[in-house]
Amino acid sequence: MPPPQKRPDPEPKVVQAGRYLVYKVDWLRAEEAAETLRPILESRYGPGVTIVPHIPTNKLIIYLPSRREQEMVRSQGTAPRVPAQTGPGTQPRSTGPGAPSQGTGTSSRRRALAGSR
What's the whole-model pTM score? Predict the structure, then answer.
């Protein structure tokens, strides 16, 4: 009998398209993983690294600048930060002990948008 073959993962953990990486986060929320990875990637690739969490799919979209872009950003200072939002009307969620108990109205806005399609 032939040895069992390893099945390919139905969805790869990392997909690369040019200078962009799409990373599937399994054990954390994408926002938390982005906060953790930002200083690590900036120390290696410079302040031009952009990390955007995609909340609905719990994935990170990461842009790694070329060496030329790294040098440009370093000579100009730090790059602007990208907010942790993934679309219009979304706001970062706070779920800690001191988080407000009332919603921001985002759910009703989403329902209204979903009904208009």
Answer: 0.52
